[in-house]
Design a protein that fits this description.
The chain is α+β, with helices and mostly antiparallel strands and 802 residues long. It contains 24 helices and 10 strands. The strands form 3 sheets. The protein has a 5-stranded antiparallel β-sheet. Strands 8-10-9 form a 3-stranded antiparallel β-sheet, covered by helices on one side. Strand 9 and strand 10 form a beta hairpin. Helix 1 packs parallel to helix 3 and helix 2 packs parallel to helix 5. The radius of gyration is 45 Å and the shape is extended.
Length: 802
């Protein structure tokens, strides 16, 4: 089907569907007698399968309107029927045989059952009619799809057969002559000449405006866009340049419309001239859009960003290919219009379309190699893995090359419909992909303009919006590759009816309600959290850790309630999720037990608050300050300024030392050693004087100096000081050690170093001039000797170890 005919059929189907929807909204209920007539007529048409595609599309739209009425009837009394069922259920089960029931309850049960039967009858009738309409629509869709498949697989005349050429040339010549004849006939008509003379001022003005816009507007728009973006790397300049560049489509198209209106005002053309003018606007739109797309994807000036990162030396090649494909597609549209109007025979269509297919495939092949070469060059220059976007470009290049090689062969063998099905949808697909790429770039730049900051273009929000654009592009992409508008409406009807899972039905309306209600609840929760955190809680006497716990707990409760209210508002029965919840609980128990453990531990930490933000703790060998407590983990900043993420389960099940819990008072222990022979009372007095003089030491309890014992190398003392702020422990310890070293030097108190006594097994080897018969063994220290190493002939040293 040609593009114009396809558009007319789609428009007609949409109008019929709209009229059916309006009729449904105005009517009290379906007219089943009229539906019976329509259904019988549709079933006969399906049975014979002789109607045209357009007739089937019209019939399908009519049946789809009836089906929508039946769908509305099915949902009309749902709430009332459910109320009646609940009332009957509230009366309890009916008594078994032989059992009596109260008269009032029996009468009420009978009345409710009668009402239920009366309301259920229209529903059952609507269900039967809905099934019948749905079956007719399915059969019509099967017929149309089968016809599409047959048309693609049907072998027609060979365009390379010379016997088909004269007929094709004759058709083209007849069309050209008919256009000229129509102009001559209109010129010889006095009334038309008089109208042309009367409209001459308007014609001249429109021709001048059209000529100026067609010849200069594109150049002006492109020049202005380049000037805006040159020398300005801000995202706002990119957005402004893109908007201005759209003038390359709008203003030339406005000029073309003015030119067409000027020609129409003369009325000096025939029916084929009228068809040419109608098609000329579509052709112009294709040409102007292709030139604009080529200038944005393969920019001539370096001031414009190249989305495909094609080297500047190859961009001119890309622009030529893109514009040439637009021209070929425009000629295809024009040829299709005249072929339908003059009813060309299949051989003429095959011969006239063959050069266009060959030229288009040649350009597609070259463009595919250009894209593939860009990916290969990127792979050679980069040592790392090829980015995902480049891999997509390479895949598209391979697909384009495959189409460019296969389609001409199919066309030459007589499969012209299949060749056209591959060629022209591929051209439109490339145009759609290029448009999506440009839109994603504009979305990123617009977001960076509204939310300036480093990395704004690559943040999550524009990425999600760009992904949404890709999803929306699936709709035109499916239409390009043969899907009918009715196929999309069928998908939408299925979505509207909802997805049924067991006894639960999820429709787009319920899903939208779920999202909106949850979003409102989430925003309200965040607003209350912010108000408490900044306005209310700072004015209370609650410590910072408790404030964080209150705000966090309120957030979890608010999100849970928002989800619960959203599910209820969407009409989703929570009882139907019991089986799914049970299965999920098993999965959580086995596969997510660590995450759940950390989550529960985080809740315990927020409620019991054994630690709070700002506490100095030690856990698992890591010591530092608690900076944040989340529901899964706790972040600790160590003293070397590194962040340690500790799972909350470790804080609950492990041993945690909190140095500042409750208050900052803490004790520091400083060990000190002096040489043997030193007056221990004098050492104690000096250390006590140093400890008492430190400003961080508490007077009650006072610092203590303890004589701990006799060490291997020294007499061991300890200074124990209760500090006002234990966070200054290291600084206090450092300062007191400096004072101890200075005072011990003044008091001539010796700080010993480690000493060892060494026993030699063979001292004679150390006598001068004596040569050992063999290398001496390693000299062991006294703690390394055992009974087997002792030589009974070696005299024992005296007490001095000499």
């Amino acid at each position: 089907m040609m593009p114009a005919a396809w558009l007319r059929a789609a428009f007609l189907s949409a109008c019929l569907a709209l009229l059916a929807t309006l009729a449904t909204a105005q009517a009290d209920g379906p007219d089943y007698e009229q539906w019976q007539s329509t259904a019988t007529r549709a079933e006969r048409a399906v049975e014979t399968a002789r109607a045209s595609d357009q007739a089937f599309e019209i019939l399908r739209a009519e049946v789809a309107g009836w089906r929508q009425q039946f769908q509305n009837q099915l949902n009309a009394n749902d709430s009332r029927l459910q109320t009646l069922r609940d009332q009957i259920g509230a009366l309890g089960p009916a008594p078994e045989d032989g059992q009596n029931e109260a008269t009032e309850i029996a009468e009420r049960r009978t009345e409710l059952n009668a009402q239920l039967e009366r309301l259920s009858t229209p529903r059952r009738t609507a269900e039967e009619a809905f099934s019948r309409a749905n079956g007719v629509i399915t059969e019509i869709d099967d017929i149309l799809r089968q016809r599409q498949t047959d048309a693609l697989l049907n072998m027609g005349p060979w365009p390379v057969n010379p016997t088909n050429w004269p007929g094709a040339l004759r058709h083209a010549q007849d069309t050209t002559i008919a256009i000229a004849a129509g102009v001559r006939q209109a010129w010889h008509n006095p009334s038309r000449r008089a109208n042309a003379r009367d409209n001459l001022p308007l014609v001249v003005i429109l021709l001048i405006v059209g000529a100026v816009l067609l010849t200069r507007s594109r150049y002006w728009s492109e020049l202005l866009a380049v000037r805006i973006q040159r020398g300005d790397t801000r995202s706002s300049a990119e957005v402004a340049g893109f908007i201005v560049s759209l003038g390359q489509i709008f203003f030339p198209m406005l000029g073309l419309v003015a030119f067409v209106r000027a020609v129409r005002a003369t009325q000096l053309f025939g029916p084929r001239g009228d068809l040419l003018l109608d098609t000329l606007e579509v052709v112009g739109l294709v040409l102007f859009f292709s030139r604009w797309l080529a200038s944005r994807l393969f920019p001539k000036d370096d001031a414009l960003r190249a989305p495909l990162a094609i080297p500047k030396g190859r961009r001119a090649e890309g622009r030529i290919y893109a514009v040439t494909l637009g021209i070929v597609f425009a000629f295809y549209v024009l040829l299709g219009q005249f072929s339908d109007f003059d009813r060309y025979d299949p051989s003429a269509d095959a011969v006239l379309n063959f050069p266009l297919v060959v030229l288009a495939c040649l350009i597609l092949t070259r463009l595919g190699w250009l894209l593939r070469r860009r990916v290969r060059d990127a792979a050679k220059d980069a040592d790392q893995e090829i980015p995902y976007g480049d891999r997509i470009v390479g895949t598209i290049g391979r697909a384009v090359i495959a189409v460019g090689l296969i389609a001409p062969v199919l066309a030459a063998l007589g499969y012209g419909a299949a060749a056209q099905f591959l060629t022209y949808p591929m051209i439109l697909t490339l145009a759609l992909i290029g448009t999506v790429v440009l839109l994603q770039g504009v979305i990123r730049d617009a977001y960076a303009t509204l939310r300036p900051g480093e990395g704004a273009r690559d943040s999550l929000a524009p990425t999600l919006i760009g992904f949404l654009v890709v999803l929306l592009a699936i709709i035109p992409l499916s239409l390009i590759w043969g899907a009918r508008v009715t196929d999309l409406t069928e998908v939408w009807a299925t979505l509207r009816s909802g997805l049924t899972i067991g006894d639960m039905t999820i429709s787009p309306g319920s899903f939208f309600t779920l999202v909106v209600v949850f979003t409102l609840g989430y925003l309200m929760t965040r607003g209350i959290q912010s108000a408490l955190k900044t306005s209310v809680l700072p004015k209370t006497r609650i410590d910072p850790g408790g404030q964080v716990a209150i705000v966090s707990g309120l957030g979890y409760v608010g999100i849970f309630l928002a989800a619960l209210i959203a599910i209820t508002a969407a009409g989703i029965d929570l009882s139907s999720l019991a089986i799914v919840a049970g299965a999920l609980s098993v999965g959580i128990g086995f596969g997510l037990q660590t995450i759940v453990s950390n989550f529960v531990s985080g809740i315990i930490l927020l409620i019991e608050r054994p630690i709070s933000e700002g506490d100095w703790i030690e856990v698992g060998g890591q010591m530092g300050y608690v900076r944040s407590i989340s529901v899964r983990s706790t972040r600790i900043e160590t003293f070397d300024r590194t962040d340690v993420i500790v799972p909350n389960a470790d804080l609950i099940s492990g041993t945690v030392t909190n140095f500042t819990r409750g208050n900052t008072v803490g004790r520091v222990i400083i060990p000190v050693g002096v040489a043997y022979g030193t007056d221990t009372r004098r050492v104690e007095a000096v250390l006590k004087e140093i400890a008492d003089a430190h400003p961080m030491a508490l007077a009650n309890p006072p610092p203590a100096v303890l004589f701990m014992g006799f060490g291997a190398d020294s007499l061991d003392f300890e200074i124990r000081i209760i500090l006002r702020d234990v966070n200054w422990m290291l600084a206090v310890k450092n300062e007191i050690n400096h004072q101890i070293a200075a005072r011990f030097e003044e008091e001539e108190i010796e700080i010993p170093f480690a000493q060892r006594d060494v026993w030699l097994r063979n001292p004679e080897v150390l006598q001068p001039g004596r040569k050992a018969e063999k290398a001496p063994k390693t000299v062991p220290t006294v703690e390394h000797l055992d009974e087997n190493d002792m030589d009974p002939d070696t005299p024992a040293e005296d007490g001095d170890g000499k």
